[in-house]
């Protein structure tokens, strides 16, 4: 499965250390940085994957044992 998300990159001036800050608009907490734009892109992909895994793990902890659980795919317009 592949998601289409919005990545935002902010160039950091050389006077402030240089590089790029990056975050994903749709995934709060998926924030990272990189010395180059490409490094920031790769780091953001990793951050998004980690956030999704963490959210999935936390959600499973909330499931009450013995309750009927229904899982299904859902599509929403962007």
Task: Give the helix level as a range of percent.
Answer: 25-40%
* Major beta sheet summary: 3 strands, antiparallel
Low-confidence parts: none
User: Counting H and I runs of at least 4 residues, what is the number of helices?
Assistant: 1
SSE ordering: EEEH
Number of strands: 3
How far apart the termini lie comes to 17 Å
Strand content: 15-25%
Adjacency order of strands in the biggest sheet? 1-2-3
Cα shape: elongated
Q: Estimate the mean pLDDT confidence.
A: 92
Structural class, by secondary structure, is: alpha+beta
Radius of gyration: 17 Å
Q: What does the secondary structure layout of this molecule look like, with pairings?
A:
Elements: E1 7-11, E2 20-24, E3 31-34, H1 37-62
Antiparallel strand pairs: 1-2, 2-3
Quick overview:
With 78 residues, this protein is α+β, with helices and mostly antiparallel strands. It has one helix and three strands; from the N terminus they run βββα.
């Amino acid at each position: 499965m592949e998601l289409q998300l919005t990545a935002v990159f902010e160039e950091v001036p050389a006077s402030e250390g240089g590089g790029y800050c990056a975050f994903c608009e749709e995934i709060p907490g998926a924030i990272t940085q990189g010395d180059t734009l490409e490094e920031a892109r790769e780091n953001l992909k990793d951050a998004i994957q980690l956030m999704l895994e963490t959210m999935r793990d936390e959600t499973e902890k909330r499931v009450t044992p013995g309750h009927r659980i229904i899982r299904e795919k859902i599509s929403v317009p962007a």
